[in-house]
Design brief:
This protein is mainly alpha-helical. 62% of the residues lie in helices and 6% in strands. It is elongated and about 70 Å long.
Length: 159
C-alpha cells in the first residue's frame, strides 16, 4: 500500500471514530436533557429495575466498571432519592438496591438504550466481527504514545 493510500485509509478510519464518539456523546446529552441524570446513572437505574435488591458488587460487574466508581454513582442516586438502599433481613451485611417511584418514572421517558449506543451496537455484532474488532483495538492501543488503562473501568458517559 502506498504512503498516500495508507494516509487516506487512516483518515477514513478516523472519521468513523468521530461518528462513533459524536453519536455516543449526543445520546448522553439527550439522556441528560430528557432525564436530568447522566447516561451511567440511567444504566444503573435500568439494571436495578431488572433485578431489585441488586448489590453494588454485582451492579459494578454488569456495567463493567470498578466497584468504587459504581458506589460513588449509586450514592449520588441515593442522595437524589432515585435509589433506595436496604439491608437484607436475612444477611445484615448485604445491602440491596431498589428504585424510588421517581426513578421508575424517569425510566419510562428515558431515550434508549439505557446502557448507551455503543454497548448495544457491540452486542449486535457477530462473534467473529467482535473478536476481529477487539484484536484491532488491542493493536491500536499498543500504538498510542500515551494511555491510561484506568479509564477502562469508567463509564463512557463519565469520560
Amino acid at each position: 500500500m502506498s504512503r498516500r493510500s495508507k494516509n487516506q485509509l487512516s483518515l477514513q478510519v478516523l472519521k468513523k471514530f468521530r461518528i462513533i464518539f459524536g453519536s455516543v456523546r449526543q445520546h448522553f446529552r439527550d439522556v441528560e436533557q430528557t432525564c436530568g441524570i447522566t447516561g451511567s446513572q440511567l444504566w444503573i437505574l435500568q439494571e436495578v429495575s431488572k433485578t431489585p435488591d441488586l448489590g453494588v458488587s454485582e451492579l459494578a460487574e454488569r456495567l463493567s466498571i470498578h466497584q468504587s466508581t459504581c458506589s460513588q454513582l449509586v450514592e449520588k442516586l441515593v442522595a437524589r432519592g432515585l435509589i433506595i438502599k436496604e439491608r437484607s433481613k436475612i444477611d445484615q451485611r448485604r445491602v440491596g438496591l431498589s428504585l424510588s417511584a421517581e426513578a421508575s418514572g424517569i425510566l419510562k421517558v428515558a431515550p434508549g438504550p439505557a446502557e448507551g449506543l455503543l454497548p448495544e451496537a457491540l452486542q449486535a455484532l457477530s462473534e467473529s466481527a467482535l473478536s476481529s474488532l477487539d484484536d484491532s483495538l488491542v493493536e491500536l492501543i499498543g500504538e498510542l504514545r500515551m494511555r491510561d488503562d484506568k479509564l477502562a473501568d469508567k463509564p463512557l458517559a463519565d469520560l
